Amino acid sequence: MTDGTSGRFITLEGGEGAGKSTQIARLRTWLEGRGKTVVATREPGGSSGAEMIRKLLVEGPAERWDGVTEALLHFAARRDHLRTTVWPALKLGAWVISDRFADSTRAYQGYGHGLDHATIEQLYDVAVGDFRPDLTLILDLPIDVGLARAAARRGAETRYENLPIEFHQRVKAGFLEIAKREPGRCVVIDAGQDIDTLAATIARTVGDRLGV
Ligand code: TMP
Known about the structure:
Blueprint: E1 8-14, H1 20-32, E2 38-42, H2 48-58, H3 67-91, E3 95-99, H4 102-112, H5 117-127, E4 135-140, H6 143-153, H7 165-181, E5 186-190, H8 195-210
Parallel strand pairs: 1-3, 1-4, 2-3, 4-5
Helix pairs in contact: 1-8, 2-3, 3-4, 3-5, 4-7
The structure holds thymidine-5'-phosphate.
């Protein structure tokens, strides 16, 4: 994905209520203003099969799945999303922005639920192979602020929010660890900035990192 003629794959990650969807809409407009064709998508979901799996994951009681089952469901949804939506769009030269990707599995099922990292990477190899995002933006926000924002807008999709605060603390720490391990791919961004400042920070980061 780096020869300058094909598309780019950008992922936005972070805990609950970090403002990813608003920022994806802003980034899309910014990229389109620079002549890019943009596909905005999300996980779990982003294809009709993966949206069906999403319902199983985000609704119902918190103890519905154990960590392994949950990771399997996320990777099943991810593979369908990649095959149906992401890879074809990249092939046509689009810039694909995904609201969450595999770092969410590492942070939520790995750091949050304690599934071991080697298992997650094995599942990654099976479902995704060598493919990686060109850039991952991790929107970092204090947990209480994020959960309050998420609670204000959420309908039936409460399964993850209902997990205890310690779970969300592990998820936040996990995202920061991932960023530290892969500084070439990941950038941590303070999501506590106001919407316009945050959008400008994100645009600058994408511009610098991917040469837009
Ligand atoms: P959303 O609220 O950003 O749409 O994401 C739905 C929930 O799914 C969110 O609480 C995070 C969770 N999730 C995982 O636990 N693992 C994953 O791999 C992904 C993509 C999402």
